[in-house]
């Protein structure tokens, strides 16, 4: 059985450069935000529960610019990238190579001002819910893999990055359609019974 495809999510205003006292420049950002609802991802909103990263293997995570593997800033395996899980999300810190000067300048100028991460949800690692107003929400409770995390030039939560989740949403809708139809039929039957009772009074 093939694994679920990777998805990406992006967040504005979550990357910056810091210079140490010795003059070293580090790229820092928050790649994952916990317990905050996304904007509309093309039919649903989403949040990530803190437990989604429990037990996560961070031993080989990359940091790219704009998800481009040709523009690598660091890697946990090589010690040029570190990951820290905090109460409000997952933060990354990267020591970029000397060849990354123009990307560092882009971040310092604000041209690159967002963070993003690429992930795969574990089987059964998300739940869907339809609210009373008809909107649909997704809560991610377990990641299978975090592949990369780094700076991006993009608006927050672009819906084009949610294609895999949208397919999952369609599957969820199909699985729940019979129940929704049964509920609708029951409501219709209850309404008819109420009307019949009113007419008998």
Main-sheet strand order equals 2-3-8-7
Quick one: how many beta strands? 12
Strand content: 35-45%
Order of helical and strand elements: EEEEEEEEHEEEEH
Q: Span from first to last CA?
A: 61 Å
* Number of separate helices: 2
| Average pLDDT | 84
Structural class: alpha+beta
* Spans where pLDDT lies below 50 across 5 or more residues: 156-160
- Helix proportion range: 10-25%
Query: What about the largest sheet?
Result: 4 strands, antiparallel
| Shape label | elongated
Question: Radius of gyration in whole Å, from Cα?
Answer: 22 Å
Search tags:
single chain; alpha+beta
Secondary structure blueprint with pairings:
Blueprint: E1 7-12, E2 15-19, E3 25-33, E4 45-48, E5 62-65, E6 68-75, E7 81-86, E8 89-94, H1 101-109, E9 114-121, E10 126-130, E11 136-140, E12 143-152, H2 163-200
Parallel strand pairs: 4-11
Antiparallel strand pairs: 1-9, 2-3, 3-8, 5-6, 7-8, 9-12, 10-11
């Amino acid at each position: 059985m093939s694994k679920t495809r990777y998805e990406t999510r992006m967040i504005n205003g979550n990357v910056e450069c810091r210079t140490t006292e010795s003059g070293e420049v580090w790229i820092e950002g928050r790649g994952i935000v916990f317990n905050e609802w996304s904007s509309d991802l093309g039919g649903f909103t989403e949040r990530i529960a803190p437990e989604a990263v429990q037990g996560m293997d961070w031993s080989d995570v990359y940091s790219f610019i704009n998800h481009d593997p040709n523009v690598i800033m660091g890697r946990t395996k090589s010690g040029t990238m570190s990951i820290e899980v905090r109460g409000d999300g997952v933060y990354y810190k990267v020591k970029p190579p000397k060849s990354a000067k123009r990307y560092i300048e882009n971040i310092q100028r604000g041209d690159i001002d967002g963070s993003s991460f690429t992930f795969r949800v574990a089987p059964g690692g998300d739940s869907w819910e339809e609210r009373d107003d008809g909107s649909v929400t997704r809560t991610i409770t377990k990641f299978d893999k975090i592949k990369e995390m780094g700076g991006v030039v993009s608006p927050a939560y672009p819906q084009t990055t949610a294609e895999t989740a949208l397919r999952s949403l369609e599957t969820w809708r199909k699985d729940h359609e019979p129940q929704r139809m049964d509920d609708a039929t029951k409501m219709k039957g209850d309404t008819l019974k109420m009307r019949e009772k009113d007419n008998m009074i």
